[in-house]
Write a structure and sequence with these properties.
Bound molecules: S-adenosylmethionine
CATH class: Alpha Beta
Largest sheet: 5 strands, parallel
Number of helices: 6
CATH topology: Rossmann fold
Distance between the termini: 24 Å
CATH architecture: 3-Layer(aba) Sandwich
Helix content: 10-25%
Strand content: 15-25%
CATH superfamily: Vaccinia Virus protein VP39
Length: about 220
């Protein structure tokens, strides 16, 4: 990859960490956490899932890492949607040379007007429902787009403590509700130290290291 392309990748914000072969995008998280760690739970399911006959939808795909994994794992049809158009998605798709449909300017609520009921075998809803005023409705909307026996993976943030909580937003600085904002994402086994004092924390030897690697050849557990 030439220097111009590397500079272009580095300049773009909100880029998942993807290994393009001769360059790895830096990822959108700081160095104290492994790259893409909020998606480890999703990866754990995808590792075990045969998607080779699945029509897939990745809602709120951002720069598209999950869509690309699905395609690389052999899904015949992958559609990524997002409220915004991310240059990172367009660039990554081009570099990887993948045939993933990208529909932008699409709010989750728009989905039933675009896709038929029962259209998808697999829907990924990762890091999205905490952006939505009515998270349960978001899940119900996606549920209607699934075929019978279809599968939906929902990844989201969690609140601290054992008491039930309801929060109206996730602003850490100035939450509408009094409880502090969301603590962190539910992550894979072995990463439970992330729960301490409301911030992602990993022991020294795990910092910056992930149990998964995402590259041109797909998703690899490492
Ligand atoms: C935290 S990012 C998660 C990105 C990716 N799915 C992941 O897990 O890494 C949230 C994504 O949801 C999108 N989003 C936010 N509100 C949305 C809405 N109402 N409808 C659809 N997408 C939305 C954002 O543009 C962003 O790409």
């Amino acid at each position: 990859m030439n220097a111009v392309m590397i500079e272009k990748i580095d300049r773009l914000k909100r880029f998942h960490a993807i290994d393009f072969g001769d360059y790895i995008s830096k990822g959108r998280m700081d160095n104290n956490v492994p790259p893409n760690y909020t998606l480890f739970g999703v990866y754990q399911f995808l590792e075990k899932l045969d998607v080779k006959e699945m029509t897939c939808l990745d809602v709120g795909a951002m720069s598209g890492i999950v869509s690309f994994i699905l395609k690389l794992r052999g899904a015949p049809q992958v559609t990524a949607t997002d409220l915004y158009k991310y240059d990172t998605f367009v660039l990554a798709r081009e570099i990887l040379g993948l045939d993933v449909e990208y529909r932008t300017g699409v709010s989750l609520k728009d989905l039933p007007a675009i896709f038929n009921k029962g259209h998808f075998d697999l829907i990924i809803l990762a890091g999205v429902i905490y952006h939505i005023f009515s998270p349960l409705e978001a899940i119900a909307i996606c549920r209607n787009l699934l075929k019978e026996n279809g599968l939906m993976l929902v990844e989201t943030a969690m609140a601290r403590g054992k008491e039930p909580k309801l929060m109206l937003n996730t602003e850490m600085e100035d939450p509408i509700a009094q409880e502090k904002g969301t603590s962190d994402h539910v992550v894979s086994q072995g990463y439970d130290e992330v729960l301490r004092d409301g911030r992602a924390r990993f022991s020294e030897d795990r910092r910056g290291r992930a149990p998964y690697h995402v590259s041109r050849s797909g998703l690899q557990a490492i």
